[in-house]
Every structure is written in structure tokens, then in C-alpha cells.
């Protein structure tokens, strides 16, 4: 009986207690084996980000302003700064689930933005970037599948600080993007980088901008091109996110609660585009990204 009890519990088939004892006792080797299995399960959970999102006051205290900020960016100032929401959420939830929470909301914002810019994009640029985004997304899947939460935190933090450095460098004239003739191969290369950074932290804007700024597009064509390529990459990311377990019951509940907030942020962005100086908006963005990026890197390394 003792042997059968041990096997049913997943322990060693050899009983540890003397013959005649009624109460089964775990062997020392059994305890070590159980601890090893438990530790492996915890490591697997951390590596794949399969932990819960606590929908508490702390989560919504960051999620509501983060989603509004993303909506304002999408609706009025281009989508470049919209990814600031993911690093903010990654301060209170696992980073993989932070991007999982944001993706359906960003897709909702994309739908709201598609109509005003329908067919106003530069199709050669959009097509080449969209093709290049496919291998970039595949590389992002590999990163999420085989690395830990801390590695993803480090990647998101580094991308956030890199975005700030790129934007400040452009503003100060330290980084210039000279006009250049269209090259499909170059566009696909930047599309691959954009697809990867978009998959990791919804930060595909800067790599795509390096290509688009060199094409001297009109403001409307530039905005229309960014709208269509980020709609495409967000659709492209949906099924890998689903397969990786980044959508859970808790993230679905969060999406339902935050969907009106996302739409409100988009409409506020349309209004803010006319009354809020772009310089002020992006200065706020840089401060937020510097703080959150540094904090994520600190959490990953310490």
C-alpha cells in the first residue's frame, strides 16, 4: 500500500518506512526530486511570462494614463511615442503581459486612425517595410520564447532609452537622415528592425522613421504610411502573442475596461494636435521613457 501511495503521489516507487507502517513518508530523494520539478516549473513560467496580471488599483493607476497617452500619440502626434505605454505597464506586471495588454488596444486605435488616412500612404515604401517586418516579428518570437522576463525588461528598457537618444539627436541636429533614392532592400532592412522592436515593446516607430524621413514624403503621406504599416505589424503580432500565452483572462478583462479609455485618448489626440505644442508633448514623452527605461534596466540587472 505504501508503495502504491508513493507512486500515485509522483514519488519514488521504493517505500522509505519500515514494513507495517500505515502513514507513508517521503524519502529525502523524493523531496529533492519534488523541489527540482517545482523549481523547473517556476523557471518555465518566468521564461514564458505565464503569470497573472493583478487588476488592482496600482495596475489601473498606471494603465489608464498610459493608454490615454498612447491614444493621444496615435491620434494627434504620430504613433512614434505610443509605445511609452508598454514600459509604464512593465513596471507593475510581467513585461510580456504588458505588451499583451497593449496590443488589442493599439489595434483598436489603428482602426480608428485608418479611415482618415485611407490610401494616403506611399505604397512602395509601405509595401517594402511591411515585407521586412515579417522576419523581424519572427526574431521577436524567438526572444520571447527562449529568454527570461529580465531579458525582456532589459530589451524594453534599452529600446526606450534608444528612442529618447534618437529623437533628441535628431532634434539637436546630431543625427541627420539625408534624402536618398528609394531602395526596396534598404526599406525591408529597416522594416525587419521595426518589426522586431515592435514585437518586443510596440516601438517600431524609430527604425521605420529612419527610412521614411529619407524619402521626403509629404506630412500626409508620411502619417498615412505609418498608419498602414503599424496596423499591419500589429495584426501580424496578434497570433504569435496568442500562441505565446500573452493573452489571458485578466488581460481580456483589462482590455474591455480600457477600450473606452483608448478611444477617448485617440479623440483627445486629434484635438490636442491643434492646441498642444508638439515640442511639449514629446518632452513629456522623453522624460517618461527615460525614467521607465532606466527603471526597467535596473530591475533586470539588479
Query: What average pLDDT do the residues reach?
Result: 79
Largest sheet features:
none
Number of helices: 12
Unreliable runs, pLDDT <50, ≥5 residues? 1-15, 34-50
Beta-strand residue percentage: under 5%
Strands, total number: 0
The 3D shape can be described as globular
Distance between the termini: 49 Å
Helix content: over 70%
- Element-level helix/strand string: HHHHHHHHHHHH
Radius of gyration: 24 Å
Number of domain units: 2
Please state the structural category: mainly alpha
Protein name: Probable membrane transporter protein
Region (Disordered): 1-24
Subcellular location: Cell membrane
Membrane topology: Multi-pass membrane protein
Write the layout of secondary structure elements.
Elements lengths: L1 H7 L19 H21 L8 H20 L8 H5 L5 H20 L8 H24 L2 H24 L11 H18 L3 H9 L5 H25 L5 H27 L2 H24 L1
Helix pairs in contact: 3-5, 3-11, 5-10, 5-11, 6-8, 6-10, 7-12, 8-9
Structure report:
This protein is mainly α. The protein folds into 2 domains: 2-45, no CATH class; 54-301, no CATH class. The chain has helices spanning 2-8, 28-48, 57-76, 85-89, 95-114, 123-146, 149-172, 184-201, 205-213, 219-243, 249-275, 278-301. The longest helix is centred in the last third of the chain and has 27 residues, at 249-275. The chain is globular and about 50 Å long.
Give the gist of this structure:
Belongs to the 4-toluene sulfonate uptake permease (TSUP) (TC 2.A.102) family. The chain is built from 12 helices and no strands. With 302 residues, the protein is mainly α.
